[in-house]
What we know:
With 420 residues, this protein is an alpha+beta fold. It contains ten helices and 19 strands. α8 (267-284) packs across α10 (382-406).
Amino acid sequence: MAAKSFNRDGILDPVLAAALEPAFEGATFHLHEDGTAFAGRATDTYTLATDWFAGQALPTQLAGGHLLFFPADVSPDEVEALCVSLWDEAGWLSPGILGLYGDVTLTGPWEVTRQVRQALKLPANAASAFTVQLPREREAISPDAPEDPMDPLFRFVMPAGEEYETVAQLVEIARRLGGGVRSDMGLVYEPDPDAAVNLYVYAPAWLPAEDLIKDMRDLVPQLKLFGSRAQAIEEAKQAPMTHLPSLGAALTSRVALRHLEEAGISTEELEQLNAAAAAFDRIALSTPREGSNRAGLTGTREGEIPSSVPLALGVRTESSREEYLLTAPVGHGAAVVVETFSQVEVPAALRWEDWAQGPVVVYEVRWEPSDPQRAYLRSIPRTLRVERMNATTVVEAIAAHLVARVGGSAVDDAGFLVTF
Length: 420
């Protein structure tokens, strides 16, 4: 059967269609289950195509839209895996075109040359990029509008509706893979990969509180059971930090490991740095800061207190287990909290797991910062960075143990899978 040529008319953006033509090494076509060829997009079809042309430079005519860029060691498969975690429809429509939902697509990866980096003011480590095909939906920003996570990417107007939600999710993909986003306004934002601290372990098995406390006795000896969140946070504010697991005992993030390797820091040196940071934390956090919020409620900005259960948890159903709350101090006024919820819906990233088809419980392992008003800013003080690093160490140690003990999987705040 002769292959049909790539259908440019099936791509909504004519500029993208024109740019794509030289990027393919051959023809692309779909096959229905009955064997007939189909040149456009369709569901329940198989795609046969030659590979996306490796090393194709980012066309200048596509540089004006939203861009998602990554360092050289990020593969297209990693980008696809995270997209599939967020959107049910996500998947490759053809080589070089990754569908997200509806007619929203990513195209690439395009090579980012030195000239392109300079022209677009991208960071030095930007090696590849995906262009974003997404209808624009904008609204004016009120002068008294509170701080918004999208502020680094937009001025005077802000995306709304599906554009806002999609760009926000692309920022989370960039955060996870150590990349960044360039908006169609020419503004570049590299989200801090270390800002994602909380983990959520979904599992088919229930681990009683006393068993988890016993299991974590050596790594987190101050882990205690409480009857209420308010009681737990109040005691954690007063408790001294006597022990933290070393960073070697909990897996650090993929991005952190790459930076450490580039810096030539060994595991032994890393543990020494962590011990020094913990000592600094004890001193720095022992003196309350003026104006700091000691309510123990996690907020992203002043006046806002988000739900302790992220969207990734889905809808909580009627409880059939004796849920509990544990806490461990990680510095004066800060704590790591383990809270359980029974019979929950799983996030999209786990929708294909066999065990997720039955009753599922979630173990929410989160950081309760000493200063929630500043802890989630894009640039946080050094003392809070040390506190966050200590909390991340404890969170990862507990989550890794839970996955090993009760099975299931861990996801982060964005709903991405986390492996240990």
